[in-house]
Amino acid sequence: MPAKKISSRIAGLLFLGWLIVSQAWGAVSAVSTSVAALSSSNVSSITASSPGGMQAGDLMIALVAQNSSNFPIVSTAPTGWTSLLAKDDGKSIGLAVYYKFAAAGDLATSFTWTFTASRRSSGGILAFRGVDGAAPINASGSQVSTGSTTYTAPSVTTTVANTLLLALYGAANGNASISTPSGMSAAFSPAATGAGPNGVVIFGAEALQPLAGATGAENSTGNSSLENIGVLIALKPSATLIDHVEFVEDGTGLSCTPKAITVLACTTSLSCYGVPGNQYSSGSFTITPAAIPGAQWCTDSLCAASIAGS
Fold first, then answer.
1. What is residue 15's DSSP assignment?
2. Looking at the chain, which terminus has fewer C-beta neighbours within 10 angstroms, N or C?
3. What residue ranges in 132-275 does DSSP mark as E strands?
4. What pTM did the predictor assign?
5. With contact defined as beta carbons under 8 Å apart, do 176 and 127 qualify?
6. For 166-190, how does the pLDDT look when each residue is reduced to its tens digit (9 = 90+)?
7. CA-CA-CA-CA torsion sign (279, 281, 286, 287)
8. Residue 29 burial by CB count (10 A; 0-12/13-18/19+): exposed, middle or buried?
9. Could you read off the pLDDT of 22-62 as tens digits, one per residue?
10. Residues 41 and 120 sit within 8 Å (Cβ to Cβ)
């Protein structure tokens, strides 16, 4: 009897695997970054070129910052850009974040932000691929830290798996640098204006967040003690439709030893075994029938005969 139960359970699992239709979250990837030409003098606007290697549909994230007491710092943004957030410390630094999906005409052009006052300013654009076209920002937050050597991009709570976390920072000194938070990768080198305490520096870092939930703060440590602002953005990946799931075993026949079964999630109605382009993801797990008294593997004909005699 135990052998019959295992056979029917495995057969049912294989059958159900072809009926599953679900969504899974893809992965967001960084394309490239473009930093504006910076000046150690006051400027009333800043211009950044579109990042290289982009394709239509990629998401652009723009960060602009200014050593200023005039807030909000931006008076006019480029056409088609959406404001995500603006943050300032009320006295010496402000920054703003915008986003836009790239159209065909955006792939080799430049974008200009005009400020409310002429001050030392920095800015840049980061491009990402595989971002959800309807709701690209899954979560975001910002934080001002006063006179601290730790620049904090505050924790946010994501609602889907495989988001890309983008930590952005600005500090009120044009000769300063900003360190990469532990567990993240630098998205671009610190972009500083010079001019010491009258200038500004910006920096960005990124990391994948495999699971939904609280991200924890992203802390850049060991920096100069300055007025600074940290921003954390979670980019939502585009959803991939799974047509069915396939279970593949090694086909060695009768065995009472553990066997690995590979699970393939297929994105088309065709079999995706041996066709990586049709696979969303794969994994493996081991079934050990010997752990159940009397359990054994059986071929299709043996299973059919066993079930028919039950």
1. H
2. N
3. 137-148, 151-153, 157-158, 163-171, 185-192, 201-209, 213-214, 218-220, 226-235, 239-242, 244-249, 259-266
4. 0.75
5. no
6. 999 999 999 999 999 999 999 999 9
7. negative
8. middle
9. 555 668 999 999 999 999 999 999 999 999 999 999 999 99
10. yes
